[in-house]
Amino acid sequence: MKSLRRLAVPLSILAVLLMPGTAMAKGAGTISGTVPLRGMTVELWAATPGGKAPTRLGEARSGPGGAYVLRYRGARASTVDYLTATRPGGAAEAGFPASGQSYRLGAALGEGTPPPRAKVTERTTVAMGFALAQFIDWDQGRNTAQVAGKNPGLRNAAAMSGDLVDLDGSLSPVLREFPNGGSTSTLATFNTLADLLALCRRQDERCARLLSLAGAPGDHAPAVDTLEAVANVARYPWHDVAGLTKLARLAPPLWSPVLGAGEAPGAWTLALRFEGDPPGMDGPGNFAIDAEGNIWVANNYAYDRRPKVPACGSDKLFRFTPTGQTYPGSPYAGGGLSGVGFGIAIDPASRVWLGNFGFEGKGCETAANHYTASAFTLAGKPLSPAGGYEVGGISWPQGTVSDQGGNIWLANCGNDSVTKIDGGDPAKAVNLGEGLVTAGSTVGFERPFGAAVNGEGDVFVTANSSNSVAKLSPAGKVLGLATGGGLHLPMGIAGDSNGYMWVSNSKWVVAPCPGKVEPKQVEEKVGKGGGNVTLLKPNGEPAAADPITGAGLNNPWGIAVDGADQVWIANFGGRRLSELCGTVPRNCPPGKRRVGAAISPKSGYGFDGLVRNTGVAIDPSGNVWLANNWKNAPIQTNPGGYQIVAYLGLAAPTRSPQIGPPEAP
To answer: Is the pLDDT reported for residue 428 higher than 50?
Structure first.
């Protein structure tokens, strides 16, 4: 993708660069700007995608007012560049034992030719630390935090920094304006974190305290500098929250707004909302992420901001860039799209598949089609006909997945069956009915909803109303039908690298498809039912008699596993994201290295910009995406929400598109 830098080269500078006799060596140039203090060492670094360590391209020393002019050589368009600014001398200069060069700031410049001007501040450091949290590591030999990783995650993460700040140090319009800005707590949290880093402009006890609180959990050692500190906060937002909040009250008020005395966060996360330009989503339900990290969104309703005007089924497919902007040419239409719900997937042939559930608001006079699937190319061209693919007994489909062989599987909530589109060829679609799935078993298979694929290509399908999960072979043979282990109105399902399956039990939501709707069996409130997660062994049977609780689970819906096998859950209630330790405990934080242990706090990773969430996905940069699907207090004529939400740098990067178990890039 193209660089998302916002600063253009001024015409006066461009004219000088183009004058005869002024040509610079290839890959050489100049960056000028300011840093907060005089005497700081400013360095330009280039991270080569896939490389182990970045390369230093140039160095300068800031003068009066923090101004610097840095000349560099060896720049390449393919690298991801960033600046660091370090106060030299550390403890010796400050006269206080805050170890090393503790005041180190950063600014992500991104991919392409370095810009002519860039300002480095605490705010650019918070932006870089969160956006690149999964790509920043401490280099003991160089005594510095360094950036390394693979594309597309590395370049997309650097570009995401531009959603928080511009290169002149000012706030990005994405953070400053609706649906972010003053409408959520993210801006105030961002400024509060920047003020915290500014404590280290003076290397006194407060700076030492900050570095101690922001050390990696379990290391018993402080962060070495402020750039490492903010990356740690982004990766472990639950760690020492109370201590950092208390310290924030002592920070210099450099920016506003900041979090007030009664606005202590439950965790130090940064989340951004995206609606597209122009807005058009109404009830985003789930995600598929392509190989470049672009976000494809299944959408329920035709867009309307008026809650009492009936919203008919959406006939649009939305695509966003990895940084949340509308992808050129999106949204796409045609192909029989009809109120897509939870079903969206990308297959090995790079086709986007969607199950047409036929969502429509109460009072809509246009009949939705509930019996088809649609397919698109990555260019947004519909492959399916105007009426969609009406094949294989598709009926009110929800979960839609591809296996490694290119077979497409749809969970048919409307007729208690599963459709297999063999090799992605609609002419070879078959229906696996309820009688086949339940043959010889006393367990039912009612209201199929979520679907996931393991490493062997076996497909697991949740059955919401029968509290069960079916396991099918790639050929469609029934390998098992399990219940127990706390399965209770299950919704989403996700597999991990060890072949285990994680199932979200809403305990409250009955899948909204035809047939008798059972009364709600528990209250929505946490503690009155709440919700939990069931872990299934590779054979499809429950791993334990009791389900997994905690981590802020509240009517859990979508579920995903990241590249380190940690588990992420979207909650339909409570406005929060949950995180659990997966089946590779060594990848979990110290003190939480137990399968199913809660990593997120009891309140989850809360965010006041969330409504009711359904889908969740992890991208190659480590951002966690949630679908703001339903309003908190929905009016049934138009209950849909309007945004997708990204928690920045929170998870282990995951290779995309994900077909089968998750993999690290």
So the answer is: yes
Chain-centroid distance of CA 125 in Å reads 20
SS3 70: strand
Strand partners, 352: 346, 376
Q: pLDDT for 433-470, tens place per residue?
A: 999 999 999 999 999 999 999 999 999 999 999 999 99
Q: Can you give the pLDDT at residue 524? A: 75
Each residue's pLDDT tens digit, 258-304: 999 889 999 999 999 999 999 999 999 999 999 999 999 999 999 99
User: Long-range contacts of range 258-262, CB-CB < 8 Å, 24 or more positions apart?
Assistant: 258/188, 258/191, 258/192, 258/195, 259/185, 259/188, 259/189, 259/192, 260/188
Give Cα separations from 519 to 462, 509, 516, 527, 574 (angstroms). 19, 10, 9, 19, 21
pLDDT at position 527 is 65
Q: How many residues does the chain have?
A: 665
Q: Is the pLDDT of residue 97 over 50?
A: no
Which residues are CB-contacts of 349 (< 8 A; sequence separation ≥ 6)?
406, 424
What would the mean pLDDT of 4-26 be, rounded to a whole number? 35
The Cα–Cα gap between 199 and 299 comes to: 45
pLDDT above 70 covers a percentage of the chain that reads 92
The yes-or-no verdict on residue 25 having pLDDT over 60 is: no
The two structure tokens encoding residue 36 = 């907060």
Q: Which CATH number fits domain 271-512+520-647: 2.120.10.30, 3.40.50.360, 3.20.20.80, 3.10.129.10?
A: 2.120.10.30
* pLDDT for 1 beyond 80: no
What's the token pair of residue 19? 């004058």
DSSP string, 620-633: TTS-EEEEEEE-SS
Q: Which CATH class is domain 29-248?
A: mainly beta
CA 99 to chain centre: 34
Distance separating alpha carbons of residues 135 and 500, to the nearest angstrom: 27
The secondary structure of 602-616 as a DSSP string is TT-EE-TT--EEEEE
Angle at CA of residue 286, ends 326 and 489, nearest 5°: 165
Q: Alpha carbon of 509 to those of 459, 467, 521, 524: distances in Å?
A: 23, 12, 9, 9
User: Is the distance from CB of 312 to CB of 302 less than 8 angstroms?
Assistant: yes
CB 38 within 8 A of CB 89: no
pLDDT, averaged across the chain: 92
Angle at alpha carbon of residue 516, lines to 342 and 313, rounded to 5°:
35
Q: What is the pTM of this model?
A: 0.94
How many Å apart are CA 569 and CA 557, to the nearest integer?
7
Domain boundaries, the chain: 29-248, 271-512+520-647
Report helix angle 122-131 to 226-235, nearest 10. 40
Beta-carbon contacts of residue 442 (< 8 Å; ≥ 6 apart): none
123-149 average pLDDT score? 88
**Six-digit token string for 385:** 């006909």
- Tokens representing 2 are 């193209």
- Above 70 in pLDDT, residue 333? yes
CA pair distance 203, 199, nearest whole angstrom = 8
